[in-house]
Every structure is written in structure tokens, then in C-alpha cells.
Specification:
By secondary structure, this protein is an alpha/beta fold. Helices cover about 30% and strands about 25% of the residues. The protein binds glycinamide ribonucleotide.
Length: about 220
């Protein structure tokens, strides 16, 4: 059983998906702690409802990132955490923190990395006019959204989409890929080789392409 901590800043819908998939047995992990940097994050209520310990470490209470990160480490020290899952956690973690948890921190990002890194991945993809975007779960390194990619889902951007519709379509996929990434790690199937992640047991090669708008001339 993998002992995990989930870090949040807001609604916590990804946290909810992780909770639900741990409870159903889809994911062989136990959430030992939910940590929020925002005292009013709704995700804290979600944790409490499932009797998961939840703490707030408010970054505004610390004069430096290092002090903030030390306070986070202090909160984690009583739990034997194997994996830290950032789920809408909107603070950058520095090498000071990450070096204490090598290859043990993962993040979900609402775009197909390495495109549209940063704090508004859905909007940046929408504004750019890409036809496909998606979401990515990756290991966290000291860059911003740059670590080895574990899993991605591709989501179409339809021409009559609003940003809100697109965000919902991406989020629905986030709720699938994040528990799956954690389960791959829980079952010991994930290896990092340079900047690439290799997952054991993926025998079936993918062979598909989606085209949008439709390539109608080839449908005949
Ligand atoms: C999610 O869309 C997640 O991918 C995004 O914040 C949202 C949190 O939603 N994360 C980032 O943008 C990180 N750069 P949630 O609180 O409902 O899980």
C-alpha cells in the first residue's frame, strides 16, 4: 500500500477522484494527509468528510519559500509518505523541498506538456487556437512543469467551445489519468530513464490518430 499526501489549493476535485479511487480499491494507496496552502480551500472539507487528516500551511505566514517548505516538511514528518501528489497546488516547490523527496513528487497539469506550462494551461491553449489539448501527470523537478511525463490524455478543442466548456472536458480526463498514474506507481510499474518514464507491462502498442476538423476527403 502506497502512503500518499495530496497537496491542494482549491476545489480539490482531483483530490476527490483520488479519494474515490482509493476507497473503491482501484488505486492501491492510502491518503495519509491532505495539505493546503489556502485556508478556505474546499478540498479541506472533502478530506474531512472522508476522515483524512487535513492541514493548512499558509504561505503568507512565512517570510521565505524555504521557511514555508520547512513548515510543510514538519507537517509531513509524522507520516511515512511514499508519494506527494500535487493536485491544483498553486505554489512552486523549490530544490530545497524537492531534494528531500527525490522522484516522489508528481503533479497534474491541465495541458499537453511541454506546451502551455504555467498557471493557466487551459486558457493559454484555448487562446492559442490549438485543435487538441489535454492534461499531463508528471514527476516534479525544479523547473516549472518540466519533469518526466507519466501519462497524458488528449482532449479536442471544438470550434464552438467556450473556455469553461473546455476546462470541464479537460477536468473530466484529469479525474481519470491522475488515479491511474498513482496506481502505476503503486504497483511498482514506473521507471524513470533520463527524462522518459517507462511503464512495465504496456504490451499493446497504440496505433491511432484523431484529426480535427475532420479530414473528410479520406472518408470515401
Ligand atoms: C486542475 O485543473 C489542475 O490541473 C490545475 O488546477 C486545477 C485544480 O482543480 N493545476 C494547475 O493548473 C497547476 N499548474 P481541482 O482543485 O478541482 O483538482
Amino acid at each position: 500500500m502506497l502512503n500518499i499526501a495530496v497537496f491542494i489549493s482549491g476545489s480539490g476535485s482531483n483530490l476527490q477522484s483520488i479519494i474515490d479511487n482509493c476507497e473503491s480499491g482501484n488505486v492501491n494507496a492510502k491518503i495519509q494527509l491532505v495539505l493546503s496552502n489556502e485556508p478556505d480551500a474546499f478540498g479541506i472539507e472533502r478530506a474531512k468528510k472522508h476522515n483524512i487528516p487535513a492541514v493548512t500551511v499558509n504561505h503568507r505566514d512565512y517570510s521565505s519559500r524555504q521557511d514555508f517548505e520547512d513548515a510543510i516538511c514538519q507537517s509531513l514528518k509524522d507520516y511515512n509518505i511514499d508519494l506527494i501528489c500535487l493536485a491544483g497546488f498553486m505554489r512552486v516547490l523549490t530544490a530545497h523541498f524537492l531534494n528531500q523527496f527525490p522522484n516522489k513528487v508528481i503533479n497534474i497539469h491541465p495541458a499537453l506538456l511541454p506546451s502551455f506550462a504555467g498557471t493557466q494551461g487551459q486558457q493559454d491553449a484555448f487562446d492559442y487556437g490549438v485543435k487538441f489539448t489535454g492534461c499531463t501527470v508528471h514527476f516534479v523537478d525544479t523547473g516549472v512543469d518540466t519533469g518526466p511525463i507519466i501519462i497524458q490524455a488528449v482532449v479536442p478543442v471544438k470550434q464552438d467551445d467556450t473556455l469553461e466548456i473546455l476546462k470541464k472536458r479537460i477536468l473530466a480526463q484529469e479525474h481519470k489519468v491522475y488515479p491511474q498514474a498513482i496506481q502505476y506507481i503503486a504497483q511498482g510499474a514506473v521507471k524513470i530513464s533520463g527524462n522518459k518514464v517507462v511503464i512495465d507491462g504496456l504490451a499493446n502498442a497504440l496505433d491511432f490518430a484523431e484529426i480535427y476538423p475532420p479530414a473528410k476527403i479520406f472518408d470515401k
